[in-house]
Amino acid sequence: MELVVPCMPFLLASDAADGTQEADLAAVETVRNCWCSYLDQEMEPPILEKLTEFLPKLLDCCGETRSFCPPPRLPSCSTQELCERFRRVVTSQKHTPSNGT
Predict the structure, then answer these.
(1) Nearest CA to 40 among 27, 55, 57?
(2) Looking at the domain assignment, is residue 74 inside a domain?
(3) Distance (Å, rounded) from C-alpha 93 to C-alpha 16?
(4) Inside any domain, residue 25
(5) N or C: which end of the chain has fewer CB atoms below 10 A?
(6) pLDDT (tens digit, 9 = 90+) per residue, 21-49?
């Protein structure tokens, strides 16, 4: 959980009536508490200063939800085609001279 970089506005913008909003709010609080617990640990003053500056930007939501474009669609390839591409790359590496030889 401590390695999660939260996307708080999306969790807080949830208006689902099926009970997931409560779960989302609980998740937001859990993530905030985990990240803020780092402030209780002993660390060098410059690191503490950077963390103190960074956490509000990460965790405080101003109520705006940014929209993201969906990732581009990648063409699907067959397993055989992928194997052939891999074979060509490996073969080309065998023929490429390495430095110092």
Answers:
(1) 55
(2) no
(3) 53
(4) yes
(5) C
(6) 888 888 888 888 888 888 888 989 999 89
